[in-house]
Amino acid sequence: MKNNAPSLLQSIEAKDKYVLIATAAFAGLFLLCMAWEWFIAPLRPGGSWMALKGLPLLFAIPGIWKAKNYTMQWASMLILIYMTEGLVRLFETGANFWMAVLETLLSLIGFIAILMYLKPLKQEYKRQKKERELQSEQQPDQQPKP
Predict the structure, then answer these.
(1) What are 28-43's pLDDT values in tens digits?
(2) Which of 3, 43, 57, 107 is the most exposed place for a label (fewest CB within 10 A)?
(3) 136 DSSP 8-state letter
(4) Structure-derived torsion over alpha carbons of residues 74, 89, 98, 37, reported in degrees to the nearest 10
(5) 132 CB burial (10 A radius; 0-12, 13-18, 19+)
(6) Is the pTM of this model over 0.90?
(7) Residue 119 C-alpha from the chain's centroid
(8) Which residues contact 109 (CB under 8 A, 6 or more apart)?
(9) CA–CA distance from 12 to each of 18, 24, 43, 67 (Å)?
(10) pLDDT-based confidence at 140, cuts 50/70/90?
């Protein structure tokens, strides 16, 4: 039987550091949301359906891990919802305050990691677009004259 541990380690080492950070932040945020609303400090004793608020994060994690640009773009907007919730719930007391601090920090880390990953890609896209525009301006019209 073949050992898959070295291949997993190699795939992790080959990942961009911002992809790894964003994936870890999203996974951590999902776990935090589930634990927070399920058993750490639920709205109702015994847990609440608010634990499902972390579910949208699960849809983003595979695309972030694969470094898909489209997923990174919508995930950067999605995580702002969690950051907003964390900032609003900072005014609560007890365990809710500390959970809100963690939620805000994880959201901020994930958001910045996604932006740092996408920034050079966006710059390259703009450079290529400008290059294509210059090439089209330099080429004479190819249409035959009557």
Answers:
(1) 999 999 999 888 888 7
(2) 3
(3) H
(4) -70
(5) exposed
(6) no
(7) 14
(8) 21, 25
(9) 12, 12, 37, 12
(10) low
